[in-house]
Specification:
With 157 residues, the chain is an all-alpha fold. The protein has helices at residues 2-26, 32-53, 62-81, 85-102, 115-149. The relative contact order is 0.11.
Length: 157
């Protein structure tokens, strides 16, 4: 069971690790394709926050957002392979922060061709988030059950 569990975590985390590796290879001086995709979304978020809070909202560079997502995916995926709950938490943070930004199906009409791919990717990210939450739940419940079962009664002779 230990090897099968490790293999499952490896296959699951490979999605995040390979994606982070691809982002690292494409990063370059401008942040790569990920920065080009995120730039208008980050600008719109900054405009929204500036309208709500005034001019005190700090500007964030898109390259920093790409770098942070790359680190969360890479480090979180590697730690998750070895069964670390810290890795699962890092991947959860990545999914919570980046899913609404990357898969903004809510900005499209249902008749638009881009709506359904964004919705599918959004739901897939929610499924990955659910799997990580399940992993964390099993990590906290399983050791308690094993501790309770190990109490052996002494034989009376």
């Amino acid at each position: 069971m230990g090897f099968v569990s490790f293999l499952g975590r490896l296959l699951f985390a490979s999605l995040f690790i390979l994606s982070a590796w691809q982002m690292f290879n494409d990063f370059g001086n401008d942040g790569g394709p990920a920065a080009k995709e995120l730039a208008p979304k980050i600008v719109s978020i900054q405009r929204y926050l500036a309208s709500k809070f005034g001019k005190g909202v700090p500007k964030s560079d898109v390259k920093h957002v790409v770098l942070a997502s790359m680190v969360l995916k890479g480090v979180g995926g590697i730690l998750f392979v070895f069964g670390s709950t810290t890795g699962a938490h890092l991947l959860i943070y990545y999914l919570l922060l980046m899913t609404p930004l990357l898969h903004d199906f809510y900005d499209y009409d249902m008749d638009d061709l881009a709506f359904h791919p964004h919705l599918t990717d959004f739901v897939q990210s929610l499924a990955l988030l659910g799997a990580l939450l399940f992993f964390l739940g099993m990590k906290t419940v399983l050791p308690r059950k094993l501790i309770k079962k190990r109490h052996l009664k002494a034989k009376t002779t």
